[in-house]
């Protein structure tokens, strides 16, 4: 069996930036075990698989360790592959996922994704969190999926050197660290060691948590964010109440064939 494979740098306008995702279009679902093995072999933060179901696409995402219920950059990469390589021409891509129905539209070379807005509750900043991050945040929150640490300035976020063993023991899937930005409205870094991703380069789904928070904190609904990983990536954000929009570009790094 041969499967097409596309590796795409999402939230990037040139290769070696943004967040790399593998995209594998399918005609029918493979077994969960086989998709997990392919994702582990790719060894990227996410591998996306999709199949067409009439007017929409079913989409699933796997890290090297397990399946996840929402992923931003691999959704962007999947839409990019449909438009760039698979002759998709409709104005909007509709994805059915374990995280709900998602919509992606394209304007010129920018892809805009409609995602859920996730709420937060403030929790106490503990010594356990400070030790894991190597710095004490000003505020700490627990979201619907992720924990979020808020720092006073961008330099603190950029200078973090976490203990990933300790981070993997914290609550939530992702450990989001964020602060107001200098050239951007806010900056962030996201750590997901429990999923085999010490630091995720650009995490679209983390903005489901950050966008509502910063919209309220900054008093604005349109924002530009930057994820300050070693690769880095810029995200245009819009807060819509119970939904958000996050947008960015994508570029092709590789096309290939998986032989099984």
From TrEMBL:
This chain's protein is named Putative enzyme
* One matching Pfam family: PhzC-PhzF
Query: Which top EC class is given?
Result: isomerase
Catalytic residues as annotated in Swiss-Prot or TrEMBL: 46
Isomerase: is it a keyword of this entry? yes
Coiled-coil region(s) at which residues?
none
One MF term in the entry's GO annotations? isomerase activity
InterPro entries from the UniProt entry: Phenazine_PhzF-like
Keyword flag Isomerase: yes
The record's similarity note reads: Belongs to the PhzF family.
């Amino acid at each position: 069996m041969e499967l097409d494979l596309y590796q795409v740098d999402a939230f990037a306008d040139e290769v070696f930036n943004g967040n790399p995702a593998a995209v594998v279009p399918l005609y029918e679902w493979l077994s969960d075990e086989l998709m997990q093995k392919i994702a582990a072999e790719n060894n990227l933060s996410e591998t996306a698989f999709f199949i067409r179901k009439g007017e929409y696409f079913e989409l699933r995402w796997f890290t090297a360790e397990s399946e996840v219920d929402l992923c931003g950059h691999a959704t962007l990469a999947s839409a990019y592959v449909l438009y760039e390589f698979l002759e998709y021409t409709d104005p909007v891509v509709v994805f059915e996922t374990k995280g709900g129905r998602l919509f992606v539209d394209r304007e010129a070379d920018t892809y805009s994704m409609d995602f859920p807005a996730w709420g937060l509750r403030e929790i106490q900043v503990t010594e356990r969190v400070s030790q894991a991050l190597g710095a004490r945040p000003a505020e700490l929150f627990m979201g619907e999926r992720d924990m979020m640490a808020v720092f006073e300035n961008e330099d603190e976020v950029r200078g973090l050197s976490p203990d990933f063993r300790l981070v993997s023991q914290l609550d939530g899937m992702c450990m989001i660290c964020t602060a107001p930005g200098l050239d951007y409205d806010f900056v962030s870094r996201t750590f997901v060691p429990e999923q085999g991703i010490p630091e995720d380069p650009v995490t679209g789904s983390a903005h489901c948590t950050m966008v509502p928070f910063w919209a309220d904190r900054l008093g604005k609904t349109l924002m530009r964010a930057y994820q300050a990983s070693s690769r880095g990536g810029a995200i245009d954000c819009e807060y819509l109440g119970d939904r958000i929009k996050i947008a960015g570009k994508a570029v092709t790094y590789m096309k290939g064939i998986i032989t099984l």
